Amino acid sequence: MEAAVQQGTLKRFVPHAAAVTVLALAAMVGVITGPASRAEVSEGVAGAGAAEPKGAKPCQWRVVWTTKPATEAMICWSTAQETTTNKVYFDTQPRSGDLAKYAQQQAATTNGRYSSRRHSLYFHYAPLTGLTPDSLCYFTICSDKEVTREFHFRTAPDKDVDFKFLYGGDSRSDRDGRRTMNIRMRTLLAQDPAILCLVHGGDYVYDGDDMELWSEWMTDHELTVTAAGRMLPVVPARGNHEAGDIQFDEVFASPGGTGLNYFLTPLSPQLFVISLNTEISAAGDQAKFLQSRLKENTAVRWQLANYHRPAYPAVKEPSVAKQHWVPLFDQYNLDVAFESDGHTIKRTRPVRGDKPSDDGVVYIGEGGLGVKQRTPDADRWYFEGGKVGASSHVQKVTVTSTQLKVETILHDGSVFDTWQKPPRKR
Amino acid sequence: MTRQVQPDSTASLHVLRLGAAMGMAGFGAITLQYSSALFSWLWLGHGWSESAAQGLERAGACLVIAAIPFLFWRRAWLAPAMASIWLAFSTWAAAETASWQAWLVPFAGATRVLAPAAVAVWAFTGPDKRLQGLLRVATAFTFAAHGVEALLGRGLFVDYAIGVLARVGIAATQSGAESMLRVIGVVDCASAAALLLPRRWRWLALWMAAWGFFTAALRMLHGGWAAWPESVVRLPNAALPFCLYLIWKPPCSKEPSSALCPTPQP
């Protein structure tokens, strides 16, 4: 009888023992076939950070560009307390912050409290219009009786001249890394006055609903300002980490319309960047907008797009951009699509019709403005003849009438990749 | 004299097993091919190294795939139960990292997570009321969550609507697609609520199975063959209500000799 009991126990035990053995073996296979460990990207803690918001003192200053960067700019800032008088004093000449000497002033047209239950911070936007193209705009921000030092930025040219701009995405989740990259961008801006702006590919913070994270981002953004007060205007795209969050619109003054956030930015008469939003319908109104803008601008020499989730990713699966936007890119001969989200460095070979093609579109980016970097899948077909890597980075784009050059610059200032192309026959 | 004969539950068990297997296979394929939210949660959210986070993620995916054959071995209930726990953990990580309506994520994935659990439960209960309750809740949660997403006009759903209508020659506008989604959202939520009522409506279960199958297939219709894991991982959305449809087959009231109503086994 004892033997029978033992046999019964054994019978019940066998299926589970077999299952546990197989599952354990399978799990081990999973671990073994995981990626080889690599040294983590050493970001290093950036130097002294910018000051946190306090009282009525204007802080967290941003210049936002959308549709008319040659003549218009949105000056955005924050105050820790509610203020009654909020103005920007501006001029084409430096006035050393002497408010009486500035030729023009613009009151903030929108003021409010950033959406947050816990974090109390106030936003202010002043739209500057009628600016002189391709010239320096000097300005000082004033909230109540508190004033900032004088800043300046260069407006976009209205003539076919050479210039540069920066592209980067994913400045979230690693504050030290973000500060390091902001200081890198500041260094680039100080060294090279031809740099006009930063085209941002989205994912500014880990949780777009968390105003504390946004506040940190805005404070860290102050680090991009040079010692001379030169600011780097931002052309912002929405990322998946701020997918449906109103805070993105509050921080960047609703670029392209609240919740829509798609628009075309002509950085010169011969180059435009079309910023798209991968977090809303790609096939509907946005595809129509994209098609109409590409159709209207077929003669423009350099045509670029900027959006967050990639059509040709280095680690993840392709986004909706591949079905709904890539065919339009091919049809209207886009030059470069900037993509973020993957936390790697990537440059594809030219692609057309989802196949290698020398006259195709090149997809560059994947996001490295501070976020931890991961190992890209270099075996994907579109990287044959391209380049991938893993390190914090920013792309510097040099625009001339004969060449578009994209350099991938790492956090230490070294150049990881250089790619260039002549203009298409349009 | 006529007698009532309980329908054979073998077909419903097979459907449940197959649905669970598809969900698990799709999950494994997506994770191994592209990585999942669990990776991001561990790597960026909790400071794991890339290799450790990816190693654990892949181990879990292999575990879930390896558990598939055990779905078809009634005595080995522990393996599907473990797979269900892993799927629940992954879904929770997905909710932690999601930025758009994160609270909907666990509900939307309920059929996928609970299908292997239902197979394990079946080993003890058979297709009794407890198991049916589990299937009802899982299906209702998934339909309600997708219904709410449709009502909120989720961009991806708008794209599916426009893309699928374009395939049949209808050029839908975004506002037209959004209106259609509102109707679909109401129907999904109403179906979910009706399924939780005590009454057994077989036609409702069949409708939900058909709609679940169509919406799963939609991923492939929209994204092409490469999107097959996205379709396969959603097949439990069809399998669970179809399993209910089969379980709720009314007892035969015919002579045992009828071809439609086989003689019960002694």
Protein topology:
The complex is a heterodimer of chains A (426) and B (266).
Chain A: H1 2-32, E1 59-64, E2 73-79, E3 86-91, E4 104-107, E5 110-113, E6 122-128, E7 136-143, E8 146-147, E9 151-154, E10 163-168, H2 175-191, E11 195-200, H3 211-221, E12 234-236, H4 246-252, E13 263-268, E14 271-275, H5 285-296, E15 302-307, H6 321-324, H7 326-331, E16 336-339, E17 345-347, E18 351-352, E19 355-356, E20 362-365, E21 387-389, E22 393-399, E23 404-410, E24 415-421
Parallel strand pairs in A: 10-11, 11-12, 14-15, 15-16, 16-20
Antiparallel strand pairs in A: 1-2, 2-6, 3-4, 3-7, 5-6, 7-8, 7-9, 10-22, 13-14, 17-20, 17-21, 18-19, 22-23, 23-24
Helix pairs in contact in A: 2-3
Chain B: H1 10-34, H2 37-45, H3 50-66, H4 78-97, H5 105-108, H6 110-125, H7 129-151, H8 155-167, H9 174-195, H10 202-223, H11 228-232, H12 236-247
Record the strand order, biggest sheet of chain A: 13-14-15-16-20-17-21
Backbone shape of chain B: globular
The SS-based structural class of chain B is mainly alpha
Oligomer: heterodimer
Strand content of chain B: under 5%
Rg from Cα of chain B? 20 Å
**Can you identify the CATH superfamily of the largest domain in chain A?**
Metallo-dependent phosphatases
CATH topology of the largest domain in chain A, which one?
Purple Acid Phosphatase, chain A, domain 2
CATH architecture of the largest domain in chain A: 4-Layer Sandwich
Which chain pair has the greatest contact?
A-B, 52 and 47 residues
Let me know the number of strands of chain A. Answer: 24
What's the tally of helices of chain A?
7
